[in-house]
Amino acid sequence: MSESIVRFSEIYLATEPYIKAVGQVRIGASGIGWKAAEGETEALKGIAMPGLTIESGVLALQHDSLRRIQWQRVARGYGLRIYTKSGFLHKLDGFTADDFDTLRDAIKRLFHGLTLEARDISIKGWNWGKTDFEGTNMTFKVDNRPMFDLPMGQVSNTNLANKNEVSVEFQAPKTKNLKRKAGAVDELVEIRFYVPGTTTTGPGGKGGNADDEDGASADGEKADDGEDGEEEVSAASVFHDTIKERADLGQVSGDSIVQFPEVLCLTPRGRYHIDMFSHFMRLRGKTYDYKISYENIQRLFLVSKPDELHMMFLVGLNPPIRQGQTRYPYLVLQFVRDEEMVVDLNLQVDEAAKRFEGRLRSHYDEPLYRIVANVFKGVTDKRLIEGGSFRGYHGSQGLKASLKASEGTLYPLDKGFLFAPKPPLYIPHSDIASIVFSRVGASSSNKMRTFDLKFNMHGTQDYQFVSINREEHASLEDYMTQHGIKMLSELNETTSVTYKGMDQDSDNDGGVRKAVPAGLGGDSEDESSEDEDFVAESESDVPEEFDENYESSGDDEE
């Protein structure tokens, strides 16, 4: 029985990226197995893969579950691509060219109905071809030869960039607790496909092959006159819908924990449906759909807008979501403060959702913003940062300010500053070297109602917030003092200064008193006393030509 088993050593498990785990492959009548070598099991932590047992480091693929096996050239020599009947693709790399005959004979002998297919990769370098979807993979082919594969499970978003262009964005690799490959620093984050022409869809909505422009119009007329109800649509939209279906980005309503419909999002702007699942959330809008893993959520903020009528909930993302070349490191959601809602959570949707039972309630009856914040806090297990003890002149949590050309609100929190809604920015106290108040000592002739605030940072770019109401200065200075933040003078940024008392009214200077840093001088009794040695002369020692009493030497001679 042991003679029928074929073994190969030094084979890499390459199903997931950034995994450098080597082991031994065994092929027998029961199926294909891979076992990690001694000391390599640690590299498998954090991986979720059908057939893989993390504790023992064994990948077991039963004979009955195998659908197709391919042989192709890879970076580590040659590799096997094993397709299962469930649609999953397993990859094993590290074979040599001489192993092909041994593998082919073993598969033909042990697995009835299966053969080892040699997959010839196209190396022409063309950027036009055809796409083929098989299981969870999309293959781009040139002259009917595969050029590259795109795993649909790694797709985070897809959208129609324009009439004939489809963009596909990919998730960041799950590198947490994983052993990265040496030198793996570049990532494919987006790819775009130009899909010309049109195609016809039947009553079921399935698209056919794309036609060229000349043939499309003829087929379109037949579709309109035919009885089968075919409809002509752009090939790009059919391609887009296919990717959404294969990548599982479509609308799913039956297996979510909770749904929040039509939530107003300030960044990125629009109204989105939020679907919360066991391991990820979906953000579904009219144009863009996003699949965001809970592991990518880093911070949660809940603050009140200055109008006291709305609440803002900010979700910090790393890596950020993208719309073309624009990145959004924060989701900024806005809610009406008085809007209440009754929500029931489905915590029995699957085994993974049961881990939330200690952090979430099954029933909520409170303001909507509070429900959303508590649900996000529960599924991510992150601390919810709310407005601190700071209160402005009018009792609000934040101060109206502008960052460059963007107007927003600056929130002094317990451990940092938050600026929202656009562009969202969080500045921890630990990153601040010093703060400079600008335009606080304006003269009476220049009655400024606002001042500026400059943040000198440790090793990063500085930030300057402008147009802050002058009435907020006293509360800001008290906040800086309480948190031990160094304040500097605008005239000399190396000298500490206090501006207390500058907002007191004064009859002499129109209500504005200048703050003078220590050591820079100022008005004193000695400087204002009269100089006794000074002797005043006439207003003009030399007669001017316009003086009517002026007599020149020429006049005396006459």
The end-to-end span amounts to: 145 Å
In the sheet with the most strands, the strands line up as: 4-5-3-2-1-8-7-6-9
**Radius of gyration (Å):** 35 Å
**What's the tally of helices?**
7
Structural class: mainly beta
**Range of helix content:** 10-25%
Low-confidence stretches: 176-181, 209-227, 499-548, 552-558
How many strands? 35
Biggest sheet record: 9 strands, mixed
Q: What is the percentage of strand-forming residues?
A: 35-45%
The average pLDDT value, as a whole number, equals 79
Description:
The chain has 558 residues and is mainly β. Helices cover 12% and strands 39% of the residues. A 9-stranded mixed β-sheet has the order 4-5-3-2-1-8-7-6-9, covered by helices on one side. An 8-stranded mixed β-sheet has the order 21-20-19-18-24-23-22-27, with helices on one face. Strand 23 (310-323) and strand 24 form a beta hairpin. The longest helix has 13 residues, at 213-225. It is elongated, with a radius of gyration of 35 Å.
